[in-house]
From TrEMBL:
Leading EC class: hydrolase
Residues annotated as binding Mg(2+): E37, D65
Gene Ontology biological process terms from the UniProt entry: nucleotide metabolic process; purine nucleoside triphosphate catabolic process
Pfam family membership, one: Ham1p_like
Cellular component, GO, one term: cytoplasm
The protein's name in its UniProt record: dITP/XTP pyrophosphatase
Subunit field text: Homodimer.
Cofactor field: Mg(2+)
């Protein structure tokens, strides 16, 4: 089964492939099919985008909308994350937080995957909590906000972790895990042999 992933961001494809690497029989293909990013919640953007792209290609499709939410800024940049990354950038964000210390630097990433096929659209969500670093810290991994985000339980920013490490705990990983559960059920229901397509043999039911 092929699932198309409509995104303009190749980092997302790289991470999705790492996260979904244990899926057999299912491949994720990058699709460059722009869709209107309506102004609204991540859920609204993903639902609209998934339906929009599905109507165009009539094949199983995912889109994904993510945001970076900073507690001390009442969730800003949140649904404006793309625009803020391109304008203020990470330095601008750090400046806004100059006098903010400790617990007040809390932030989280959230991802909402929208999946659409002939049965309609479904959403899958993932969140990772952490805090905003005091300075930009990167070993060249990751992208966008990764160099200022330190996940809870870590000292390093996402941009100091290899993509494989980020992808063990990230918001994207969590959203895709939910999506995987849905795929397992769907495949069990639709496949006569009841074969999951998953390497983990304990999950095989044939
Ligand atoms: O074409 P799409 O899939 O929309 O790709 P995008 O880069 O516009 O992605 P989003 O709208 O989902 O993301 C909003 C902003 O948040 C950034 N972002 C998304 N996921 C991230 C992650 O895992 N780490 C750091 N920044 C991220 C992204 O680069 C944008 O600046
Ligand atoms: Mg976008």
């Amino acid at each position: 089964m092929k699932i198309y992933f409509a995104t303009g961001n190749p980092n997302k494809i790289k991470e999705a492939n790492i996260i979904l690497k244990d899926l057999k029989n299912i491949s994720v293909e990058h699709l460059k099919c722009p869709y209107p990013e309506i102004q609204g919640t991540l859920e609204e953007v993903s639902e609209f985008g998934a339906k929009y792209v599905y109507e165009k290609i009539k094949k199983p499709i995912i889109v994904e909308d993510s945001g970076f939410f900073i507690g001390a800024l009442n969730g800003f940049p949140g649904t404006y994350s793309k625009y803020v990354q391109e304008t203020l950038g990470n330095e601008g964000i750090l400046k806004l937080l100059e006098d903010i210390e400790g617990e007040n630097r809390k932030a989280y990433f959230k991802t909402v995957i929208g999946y659409c096929d002939e049965n309609g659209v479904k959403l899958f969500k993932g969140v990772i909590e952490g805090k905003v670093a005091h300075e930009i810290r990167s070993k060249g991994y990751g992208f966008a906000y990764d160099s200022i985000f330190i996940p809870d339980g870590e000292d390093r920013t996402f941009a100091e972790m290899k993509t494989e490490e980020k992808s063990e705990i990230s918001h994207r990983k969590r959203a895709f895990e939910e999506f995987k559960k849905f795929l397992y059920n769907k495949i069990i229901k639709t496949n006569d042999r009841g074969y999951y397509g998953i390497q983990n043999t304990s999950n095989r039911i044939h």
